[in-house]
Amino acid sequence: MSSASILEIRHLRTVAALRDTGSLVRAAQLLNLTQSALSHQVKLLEERYGGPLFERKSVPPQFTATGRRLLELADAVLPQVESAERDIARLSQDGSGQLRIAVECHTCFDWLMPAMDIFRQRWPEVELDIVSGFQADPVGLLHQNRADVAIVSEWSPSDETESSLASLTVRPLFSFEMVALLANQHPLLSRHHLEAADFAGQTLITYPVPDDMLDLVRQVLRPAGVSVPRRTTELTVAILQLVASGRGVAALPLWAVKPYLDKGYVSQRPITAQGLTSRLSAVWPARAGGRNYLEDFVRIVRETTFVSLPDIELL
After folding, report:
1. pTM score, two decimals?
2. C-alpha span between 33 and 26 (Å, rounded)
3. Which residues cross the membrane (predicted)?
4. Angle at the Cα of 167 from the Cα atoms of 161 and 170, rounded to 5 degrees
5. How far apart are CA 59 and CA 64, in angstroms?
């Protein structure tokens, strides 16, 4: 079996991804492979070692002795490989830099802070910071050299001139479902999902952002000609408190509110029969292409959020 005659780094990444994600489907997403390609790779490894790596019917996978030994090797080798790759990248640079992050979403901090902690461990010589305050136009800060990378949702190239568009690098991060949040006794809970007309007459509780930055308004309400009054607050927990007390409804990422839903603090319904999907991307000036830590920052964000947050899909 020549294709599996040598144990390769990609094989170790495969078993580590299976453990970290808990399924073949999500491991394939994390590794940017098709499920069939990942299954084929696992099959070759199992043929090489003469037995299964994990129990197929267990969720999450329960690894066999062979699988556990490969995991031990992965945990020992992969950090060294990644550390060496970063060291090599540093040799082509001055060994230092800065990464000022501008965000336009309040809930970004729930996943951004853990990713930043990992980044600091891997790139201690890079000065890492968040541009203070909510940013309605984070991409504009890039052009003003006031930020090094912007985290944006539904960023459209049409927002940029041709010259400025050519000067930007865009990396998709992940997508997630936005859900409608309702008080536990709200009449709309009788519906399987909410359409635009269901929001008519409701007060929409949101962060203090322009209408164009609200997925619910931009993708659902405005196309249907539905206009609703808004009440704003800076904090996610304040939004949930207002919803729970019957002061209005809200639309937030499912991953951001799942702990409150699990505790029965509020209830949720999908928005439209197809669901309402939001997407995040990282944008930075193309002139920064030589800074390898930018690409590594994106990789850290994608991997940590995909493993730690529920219902995340990589883009």
Report:
1. 0.74
2. 10
3. none
4. 95
5. 14
